[in-house]
């Protein structure tokens, strides 16, 4: 099977997975006092002004260190984003490291626009960023930092989807697994730091 055909099949599988019915959206969005450590994996779809792309992800939030690996459908890592107490860094597929103090600064530097990566673990946990302006819409979605956030849960009460939207972007994460049983002696800083 050639790569173009494989990409088409993968895109169809992603669309089918996104179309599956889920339980109702989160509707309370309590202020985040603390977010429980977790690891998760799944698929990520991004639409920027009508043009879309997709990838797989492996995501760990442990000891206040957040690491997101972005992978091809075949499992090759094309990039890593990591945030810890020292700042944020991104590592591309060739091992080149980019650093900034905040995720917004780094995404603006690399992509030309700010993405709310530093809040994803809070929103995925069904909470809102404390001490920041927000609005709960009548349908239960959260508005915060110029993003509209919605979340659905699976039958176990774990995140199934997390969707972020604004005027230019639509970002959708579809979770395959979420695990809260992590070794407490895990990483305390980004592994790519020297």
UniProtKB/TrEMBL annotation:
Domain of life: Bacteria
Signal peptide: 1-21
Keyword Repressor: no
Cross-referenced Gene3D superfamilies: Lipoprotein localisation LolA/LolB/LppX
Topology within the bilayer: Lipid-anchor
GO biological process: lipoprotein localization to outer membrane; protein transport
Keyword Lipoprotein: yes
A GO cellular component entry from the record: cell outer membrane
InterPro entries documented for this protein: LolA/LolB/LppX, OM_lipoprot_LolB
Location(s), subcellular: Cell outer membrane
Keywords of the record: Cell outer membrane, Chaperone, Lipoprotein, Membrane, Palmitate, Protein transport, Signal, Transport
Coiled coil start-end: none
One Pfam family recorded for the sequence: LolB
Quaternary organization: Monomer.
Matching NCBIfam families: lolB
Family the entry assigns: Belongs to the LolB family.
Record function comment: Plays a critical role in the incorporation of lipoproteins in the outer membrane after they are released by the LolA protein.
Name listed for the protein in its UniProt record: Outer-membrane lipoprotein LolB
Species name: Neisseria subflava NJ9703
